[in-house]
Amino acid sequence: MTLDTILYHEYEKGLPQSGRHILCQERGDNLIVYQAFNPRISDFAVRNQRFGGSHYKFTRMSWIKPNFLWMMYRAGWAGKEHQQQILAIEISKANFISLLDQAVHSTFKESVYGDHTAWKDKVASSSVRLQWDPDHDPQGEKIPRRAVQLGLRGEVLKQFATDWIVSIEDITPFVKEQKALIDQKRMSELRVMKETVLSVDEERIGQKLELD
Question: What is the domain extent for residue 25?
């Protein structure tokens, strides 16, 4: 595996413990986002370094998560049906920021949209959804910090799934190794992805993200 990891007991040092923050692993001008799929979709993606094939549906909304532990909670550490393989997908930070620029909250925010009609109009016209969810620790317990996920559809999804991809790596073996450590209560040995808070232009998109 090519991603940088860190012992979990070192992971939280220096990270904000509450509020809404985009945590991710950065690689120069790029960053990593995660998705979980069944093997038929994942195997094609890793082999071709893009999404496609007869089992991948460009007509559905697909969610990406830059935070590793939020992905692990959502996929049950690769234990849930149709989420048996975890993919680390590298895209440029510029393209990720462009998704934030286009994103519309999945629930109504009066401070951002003013009224429900304006929000519904934006939902209908946008191909990107933004959702803040409770972040989770390795055992699946909620913590005060919020993690972001972005839902993509239409032409934006096609761009992400094909043209934007720098690399795709199957990190399922690493995920299963760490889950085994959790099950064995060997938490001092647990490793997670090394992450930092992504810096964004708060004047341009800060209100949309509702950064604390």
Answer: 5-198
